DNA sequence: TTAGGGTTAG
């Protein structure tokens, strides 16, 4: 009794500042070291205070360690995430134990299973589960149960996890929560919420703060703001509003569902914040298209002395990319070096992506080449980056390099490759990629399907687009919109409108601003004036979508092409938002088609006040004057262009013949057979005239 | 002595 008191006294003194080593030395002298209770306590202390080496030494010096001592050391390794050492020690324990007093018990097992989960070592985990099944005490232990559930969910084996869970006649909140979390982490948030409701409604159990974190994460995954908000209300009623993790998960919910206002309010009212809160808020601004605000809040975070981690850096780099702010991007690059995140694959990928999006190709290439480990995400960023910078051909070459490097593409990578290929618009490659998608099983994913439809449309092969569209088992709004756009860009305006009408009859599919842009531009290209006006009206009044400058541009184009120049002008004047120059540009183009000099002068006056450095507008105007033979005005405009030193970026066409892609620009004579090409063009032109396919030859010649 | 939780890259 006396020694027990002494032990407790000594351990108390440790809490008050005495070091564990000091205690150890002190008690070696008193002989207490032979007391088994003391030994375990001491070892636990060592293990807890990250002095594993000392714990190990003490353990090795003990001749017949008790199960307590084994567990204490195992827990130390586990706490330090030294999973392999944990399992190794456990194996030692199994082989050395020879009596009931040092056999693994129900305290040992959860530690070892956790280590298996840490290594995602399902095989060893299952062996231990086999041992558990033979032992009634272990089988009914909820700590063992929750460790097993964690193992199975981590390895994606939800059926096994459920089997363990169902072995318990009355599982507690922790076990329920383990299952909820498991489903959420495996991307099945719906099942997670269903389980949560079973727990609360059927079992009458009250969730704790950890349960609610998983529930909020599930709502975020489902983008279900309404459900998430009601859970937020519940957390307040239960008095959990000070819980940091819970607040962070709510912040993430608001960020993902686009409720910036809620996120901002919550962030302002948070009882305490940590680096995760700040990172989440930065990402929230990025996701809600306010990258400048994201950069501001990062500055504030640094000023307040919060230490950014790799996630913070990834988020800020996304903000730099979205804001096209390469100066701040370079500063963050320096910071990643200072903080030692240079080898972090996600940080490097974000850097690479940022440089690509800021058109700094050389820097991006440099980052990529220096990456010691290249995963599928960084390859995808690299492929996509080249295509974004107008180097789609090279981008497909990189895809080939990736394959020969032995990295297996995933669905997202394939979409990037499809986009690059669409940029080139070459059908043989498209067919080849489609074949690969079918053989790899990615072709049934909706977002892959949408990209494939777009690719075929851009290769001019609507038939193939239709085939892909029909074959997709699941069609979302993006798939429908791609198909509508595909019809539109290939001149099948009526089909596009028909598709649009079909789509609006599909339950659960609501057209968005992209759908409307596609169908309206289809109307514009085919000259479907009445249909276009009707659909625009529906967009504004039925679907309550505020038209953006692109929608307005298309409408002006549609009205203008059909010669309704005054109506187009009225449309522009009635617009609620500021008129972007390109909208007036569309009207000017229409003035060119219908040769309305008077309106062209009015429009260009307005237009050049807004944007006086766009060579294309001057060229349009001068062409209008030329047709009317107003040569003075033509000369005046041309001089103006010269004085301003403006140049026009020439448009390009590409044609693939066998394995080569040929690029043509206006008045291009660089091709060795250009003489022949022009001759052929002239012949085609004569034939088209004969068949009355063109009424405006000088307009066509402009392009040649 | 023992359990389940929050932010990241294409």
TrEMBL record:
UniProt GO BP: RNA modification
Residues in coiled coil: none
InterPro entries (alphabetical): E2_motif (IPR046849), E_motif (IPR046848), PPR_At4g14850-like_plant (IPR046960), PPR_rpt (IPR002885), TPR-like_helical_dom_sf (IPR011990)
PANTHER family xrefs: PENTATRICOPEPTIDE REPEAT-CONTAINING PROTEIN, PENTATRICOPEPTIDE REPEAT-CONTAINING PROTEIN-RELATED
Stated name of the protein: Pentatricopeptide repeat-containing protein
Keyword Repeat: yes
Molecular function (Gene Ontology), one example: mRNA binding
Keyword Repeat: yes
Alphabetized PROSITE patterns for the sequence: PPR
UniProt KW keywords: Repeat
UniProt superkingdom: Eukaryota
Annotated PPR repeat ranges: 66-100, 172-207, 274-308, 375-409, 476-506, 512-542
């Amino acid at each position: 009794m006396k020694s027990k008191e002494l032990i407790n006294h000594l351990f108390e003194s440790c809490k008050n500042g005495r070091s564990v080593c000091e205690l150890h030395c002190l008690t070696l002298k008193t002989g207490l070291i032979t007391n088994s209770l003391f030994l375990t306590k001491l070892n636990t202390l060592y293990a807890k205070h990250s002095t594993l080496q000392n714990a190990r030494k003490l353990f090795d010096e003990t001749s017949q360690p008790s199960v307590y001592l084994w567990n204490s050391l195992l827990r130390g390794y586990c706490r330090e995430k030294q999973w392999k050492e944990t399992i190794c020690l456990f194996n030692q324990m199994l082989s050395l134990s020879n009596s009931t007093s040092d056999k693994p018990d129900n305290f040992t097992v959860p530690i070892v299973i956790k280590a298996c989960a840490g290594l995602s070592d399902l095989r060893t985990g299952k062996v231990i589960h086999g041992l558990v099944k033979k032992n009634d005490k272990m089988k009914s232990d909820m700590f063992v149960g929750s460790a097993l559930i964690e193992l199975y969910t981590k390895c994606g084996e939800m059926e096994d996890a459920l089997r363990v869970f169902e072995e318990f006649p009355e599982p507690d909140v922790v076990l329920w929560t383990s299952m909820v979390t498991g489903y959420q982490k495996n991307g099945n948030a719906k099942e997670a919420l269903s389980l949560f409701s079973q727990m609360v409604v059927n079992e009458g159990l009250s969730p704790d703060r950890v349960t609610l974190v998983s529930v909020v994460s599930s709502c975020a995954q489902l983008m279900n703001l309404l459900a998430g908000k009601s859970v937020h209300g519940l957390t307040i009623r239960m008095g959990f509003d000070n819980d940091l993790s819970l607040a962070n998960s709510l912040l993430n919910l608001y960020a993902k569902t686009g409720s910036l206002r809620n996120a901002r309010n919550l962030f302002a009212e948070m009882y305490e914040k940590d680096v995760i809160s700040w990172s989440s808020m930065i990402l929230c601004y990025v996701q809600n298209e306010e990258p400048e605000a994201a950069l501001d809040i990062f500055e504030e975070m640094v000023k307040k002395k919060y230490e950014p981690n790799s996630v913070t850096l990834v988020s800020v780099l996304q903000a730099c990319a979205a804001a096209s702010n390469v100066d701040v991007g370079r500063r963050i690059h320096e910071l990643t070096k200072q903080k030692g995140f240079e080898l972090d694959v996600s940080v490097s990928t974000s850097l690479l992506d940022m440089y690509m999006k800021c058109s700094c190709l050389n820097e991006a290439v440099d980052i990529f080449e220096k990456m010691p480990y290249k995963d599928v995400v960084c390859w995808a960023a690299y492929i996509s980056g080249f295509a974004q910078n107008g180097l789609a051909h090279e981008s497909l070459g990189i895809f080939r390099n990736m394959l020969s490097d032995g990295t297996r593409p995933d669905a997202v990578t394939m979409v990037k490759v499809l986009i690059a290929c669409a940029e080139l618009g070459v059908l043989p490659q498209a067919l080849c990629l489609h074949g690969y998608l079918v053989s790899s099983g990615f072709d049934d994913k909706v977002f892959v399907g949408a990209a494939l439809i777009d690719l075929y449309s851009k290769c001019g092969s609507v038939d193939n687009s239709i085939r892909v569209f029909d074959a997709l088992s699941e069609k979302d709004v993006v798939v429908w919109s791609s198909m509508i756009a595909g019809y539109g860009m290939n001149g099948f305006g009526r089909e596009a409108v028909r598709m649009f009408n079909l789509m609006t009859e599909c339950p659960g599919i609501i057209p968005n601003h992209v759908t409307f842009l596609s169908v309206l531009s289809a109307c514009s290209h085919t000259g479907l004036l009445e249909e276009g006006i009707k659909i625009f009206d529906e967009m504004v009044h039925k679907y309550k979508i505020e038209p953006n400058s692109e929608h307005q541009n298309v409408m002006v184009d549609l009205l203008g092409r059909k010669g309704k120049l005054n109506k187009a002008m009225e449309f522009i004047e009635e617009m609620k938002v500021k008129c972007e120059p390109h909208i007036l540009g569309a009207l000017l183009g229409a003035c060119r088609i219908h040769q309305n000099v008077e309106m062209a002068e009015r429009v260009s006056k307005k237009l050049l006040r807004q944007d006086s450095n766009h060579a294309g507008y001057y060229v349009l105007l001068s062409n209008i004057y030329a047709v009317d033979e107003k040569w003075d005005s033509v000369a005046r405009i041309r001089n103006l262009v010269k004085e301003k030193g403006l140049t026009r970026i020439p448009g390009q066409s590409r044609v693939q013949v066998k394995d080569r892609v040929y690029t043509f620009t206006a008045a291009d004579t660089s091709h060795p057979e250009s003489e022949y090409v022009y001759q052929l063009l002239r012949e085609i032109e004569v034939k088209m005239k004969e068949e009355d396919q063109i009424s405006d030859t000088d307009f066509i010649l402009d392009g040649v």
